[in-house]
Write the structure tokens for this entry.
Amino acid sequence: MSEVKGTGRVKRGMAEMLKGGVIMDVVNAEQAKIAEDAGAVAVMALERVPADIRAEGGVSRMSDPDMIEKIKATVSIPVMAKARIGHFTEARVLESLGVDYIDESEVLTPADYANHIDKWDFTVPFVCGATNLGEALRRINEGAAMIRSKGEAGTGDVSNAVTHMRKIGGEIRRLSSMREDELYLAAKEMQAPYELVKEVAQSGKLPVVLFTAGGIATPADAAMMMHLGADGVFIGSGIFKSGDPARRAAACVKATTFFDDAKVIADASRGLGDAMVGINVADIPVPHRLAERGW
Amino acid sequence: MKVGVLALQGDVREHLFALNECEVNAIPVRRAAEIASIDALVIPGGESTTIAHLAQTFDIFDPIQERIQNGMPTYGSCAGMILLADRVLDATQGQKTFGGLDITVRRNAFGRQVDSFELDLNMEGLHEMMRAVFIRAPWVEQVGSGVEILASVFPSENVSHAVAVRQGALLATSFHPELTSDNRIHRYFIEEVCKEISKFG
């Protein structure tokens, strides 16, 4: 059989299959099962959810392989895991464990303050965070097969997710309206490769799937982000830091699919118990904001 | 003729695009009234557990199953193949399918994402090979007597796995033709599977 693995089409295609879905952060096999039963399209295995990383501080790293193996053995949906920005050896370890996607994530403590991982060099696909179009295209240039807007993880405050999605969408619309001879300057200004800038200008969208993340805590949050152009939603602390995770998880899945139907979102929002407590992004001193990590 | 693409989760947009390229009226469907209004259905790639879960939550599981049983032409790619299969191996506990295709499918049979691949495939009825993209794909482990195998892959000597099958009005592929610009499978679905059915039924 003359098959080829790890092609761009196979990596980007995997993300296409996740569209319209919710990817949930889980820290153990029990949570993974709850997420799968609630209709999650994938789980993100990590040691501590962002809210706890924020509360406890310290250096945050790749998860224990035993924990990832247990989650893989428990659920049949895709299992993703996080590597530190620039930590290509953590990424190699995760690839060897057979995770389905690696998130090179600002939620963990960066390992390299200059370089991101050369993602072309891997068979496993990568998702990376971005706060604007230039950042998204730089990650795609390094081989990312999926992008998520960063938001501000572990806050339960959706405002930064909104800012980043609007920013990426707005910049795409701006490129689409430009004359072709203006794209050189646009590429220079957003510090992104000209070829990718031109591709976005012509197609009117990113060349890879765009999810949203960082601060989504309610069904209405998830639905609003879909309205703003997200192909799907990552929910980190929002589910397992809430009063009734199983119910909230299922409700967010419903609201993501029927994001344009306020009645469905209203029904999904009933009786969910306490949402995660949350922190206003404005109250977090700038050096402690995770979205600033990555360049 | 109006073709619906089940729009609960997955690569709905790519199927709509491929169908539009075939000059057919294609719409996303996720409500009972929409499902009642279509002549044929495409079940996209995605997560079969999520799609089944949402179909049950929003009370469209039974209407879809009923229409399939009553002969509505339906094509499923990857997760769609699983959802059309009568029997599923390596399913999650209690995972339901619409069924209709007398086949046994193994989920994620080729392995995890690092094992996902593309290759040139010989497909029954197509003159030239087609580039087929397999993503955490299922294969068909066993087929009933009325099922025609349209394509197989051969991992090693004396081993083959069916990856495209048809039984009357139902068509299924393990791979994703919607991820390439080759829309011959969609065309086959529209021109052969759908036409034949509407002629007789």
Summary: Residues 184-200 of chain B form the longest helix (17 residues).
